């Protein structure tokens, strides 16, 4: 009888969580921007090359022993892929693919994480000239969780977890491109 009561309570709890998850967003977007005292063309031409990511990407800098390989199309072109593998949990293993390039304006990318977490994300980098020698760089990161695992988004602040590293990456881009 006690086992039946415990089982009933567990089924009710799972049902409640599934119902709540039906009303929780499945997608999230994180945005950060920075103003860089460099022309948009210079910033764009620096960021579009996967081979430069080790210099500015905060996640790749967590582990100096991160294995990096360039795959796919020619570096700096649509379809170029940066493969990375690290023992550091914040870096992990995955691929960053440039999916669309609009010269001096936009880079769209897909991220595929293999470990320690398996998920995909996407996003865009927007290069907005403010003057001939000043650019605003906007990073837009998009991901999510399918139902019913999206319930975790009620308890985990993805903006807080990911946003700081995006800000550090943007600061690295600013520092590096202002030296060019």
Could you describe the 3D structure shown?
The protein has a 7-stranded antiparallel β-sheet. It is elongated, with a radius of gyration of 20 Å. β2 and β3 form a beta hairpin. The protein has about 180 residues and is α+β, with helices and mostly antiparallel strands. The chain has a single domain, classed as Alpha-D-Glucose-1,6-Bisphosphate, Chain A, domain 4.
Number of strands: 7
How many separate helices? 5
Name of the CATH first level: Alpha Beta
CATH topology: Alpha-D-Glucose-1,6-Bisphosphate, Chain A, domain 4
Q: Mean of the pLDDT scores?
A: 94
How far apart lie the N and C ends? 74 Å
* Outline type: elongated
What is the H-and-E element order?
HEHHHEEEEEEH
- Major sheet, described briefly? 7 strands, antiparallel
Structural class: alpha+beta
The percentage of residues in β strands lies in 35-45%
Tell me the name of the CATH homologous superfamily: START domain
- The largest beta-sheet arranges its strands as 1-7-6-5-4-3-2
Radius of gyration: 20 Å
Helix share, percent: 25-40%
Q: How many domains make up the 3D coordinates?
A: 1
CATH architecture call: 2-Layer Sandwich
């Amino acid at each position: 009888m006690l086992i039946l009561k415990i089982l009933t309570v567990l089924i009710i709890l799972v049902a409640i969580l599934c119902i709540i998850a039906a009303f929780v967003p499945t997608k999230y977007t994180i945005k950060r921007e920075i103003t860089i005292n460099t022309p948009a063309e210079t910033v764009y031409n620096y960021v579009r090359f996967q081979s430069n990511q080790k210099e500015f990407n905060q996640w790749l800098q967590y582990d100096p022993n991160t294995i990096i390989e360039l795959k796919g199309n020619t570096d700096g072109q649509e379809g170029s892929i940066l493969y990375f593998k690290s023992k550091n949990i914040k870096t992990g293993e995955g691929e960053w693919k440039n999916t669309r390039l609009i010269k001096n304006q936009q880079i769209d990318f897909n991220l595929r994480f293999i470990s320690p977490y398996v998920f995909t994300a996407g996003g865009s980098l927007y290069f907005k000239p403010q003057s001939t020698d000043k650019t605003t760089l906007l990073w837009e990161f998009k991901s999510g969780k399918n139902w019913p695992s999206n319930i975790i988004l009620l308890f985990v602040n993805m903006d807080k977890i990911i946003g700081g590293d995006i800000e550090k990456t943007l600061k690295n881009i600013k520092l590096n491109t202002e030296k060019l």
